[in-house]
Amino acid sequence: MEGIIVKGIAGFYYVKVDNEIIECKARGKFRHTELTPMVGDRVKIAMQGKKGVIEGVNQRSSELLRPPVANVTQAYVIFTLKDPDLNLDLLNRFIILCEFNNIRPIICFNKVDLADINELNTTAEMFEKASYQVHYLNAREGIGLSHLENMLEDNVTVLCGPSGVGKSTILNRLTGKELMKTGEISEKLGRGKHTTRHCELIEVYKGYIVDTPGFSSLSMDFITKEKLQLCFPEFDDHMDNCKFTGCMHYKEPSCAVKEAVEDKIIAKERYDFYVKTLEEILNGRNKR
Ligand SMILES: Nc1nc2c(ncn2[C@@H]2O[C@H](COP(=O)(O)OP(=O)(O)O)[C@@H](O)[C@H]2O)c(=O)[nH]1
Ligand SMILES: [Mg+2]
Ligand SMILES: [Zn+2]
């Protein structure tokens, strides 16, 4: 039988097969290989009485490590302009993480009720120019969520973004349940903030969704300088026209990417973020 791992707790995997959840263990051989089944994995199982044994794991289309989920197809990347203030650097980092992992980022600005509309439009335009979808939300009032609902079908969607932007509010709205506590702030307690301990796929609108704990920084140590430029879709149409093959679009002359920045076809803020990240990689500062 084939199914999808929707939850993993303490060595047990909960595999959804048709409309049933079957508690499974992994076959012993997995312990001797690199491969450990993850939530999101499509697996082959055999039954032993009422319990199952995972016999094989299908190839993954993507593999996220934080949260550990396989086969995520898209990310709702949630940010706000106000409360908390927009951290553009972190938003760009999330997008790189998605691009690098073969996950489609969908940018969502929540709490538009608090945002300056001009600032919001300018920011959205910067990402739309780079070919990304941008959505405006007011999750508290349930505004703008129908687009997100419609895109869930046939996808495994991860909800990500910093703390306090409304991820749990959005998840509760999309699932129609109070699955997550919202507005829990315990900065003073340090690690006391609500975090999702074991991640779980939640079935909704013929797709799956997974919540992530908010985080406030994201290291770029997973990426090389050669791969970095491939994570900027707005460079695609230009980089073949650079004079030098292997152009890093940095200090080289006759660089078509830099020309596109000057012509305002590529947003300068995005290019500046590229250069900053490239320099981090070149200087080894992206290493832990
Ligand atoms: N003004 C406003 N507040 C919101 C909106 N969405 C969520 N909030 C509030 O923002 C706070 C943090 O929301 P929460 O869902 O816990 O954020 P999370 O940390 O990303 O999971 C809560 O007090 C929510 O009620 C919104 O669209 N507008
Ligand atoms: Mg939350
Ligand atoms: Zn170039």
TrEMBL record:
Residues noted as binding Zn(2+) in the record, renumbered to the chain: C242, C247, H249, C255
Residue ranges constituting the CP-type G domain according to the UniProt record: 61-218
EC number: 3.6.1.-
Top EC class for this record: hydrolase
Chief localisation class: cytoplasm
Binding sites annotated in the UniProt record for GTP: N110, K111, V112, D113, G161, P162, S163, G164, V165, G166, K167, S168, T169
Cofactor binding: number and manner: Binds 1 zinc ion per subunit.
Gene3D superfamilies assigned to the protein according to its UniProt record, in alphabetical order: Nucleic acid-binding proteins, P-loop containing nucleotide triphosphate hydrolases, Probable gtpase engc, domain 3
Cofactor or coenzyme needed: Zn(2+)
Protein's cellular compartments: Cytoplasm
Keywords, alphabetical: Cytoplasm, GTP-binding, Hydrolase, Metal-binding, Nucleotide-binding, Ribosome biogenesis, RNA-binding, rRNA-binding, Zinc
Positions of the EngC GTPase domain: 70-216
SUPFAM superfamilies, per database record: Nucleic acid-binding proteins, P-loop containing nucleoside triphosphate hydrolases
Keyword rRNA-binding: yes
Job of this protein: One of several proteins that assist in the late maturation steps of the functional core of the 30S ribosomal subunit. Helps release RbfA from mature subunits. May play a role in the assembly of ribosomal proteins into the subunit. Circularly permuted GTPase that catalyzes slow GTP hydrolysis, GTPase activity is stimulated by the 30S ribosomal subunit.
Similarity annotation: Belongs to the TRAFAC class YlqF/YawG GTPase family. RsgA subfamily.
Subunit structure: Monomer. Associates with 30S ribosomal subunit, binds 16S rRNA.
Protein name as it appears in the record: Small ribosomal subunit biogenesis GTPase RsgA
Organism whose genome encodes this protein: Clostridium omnivorum
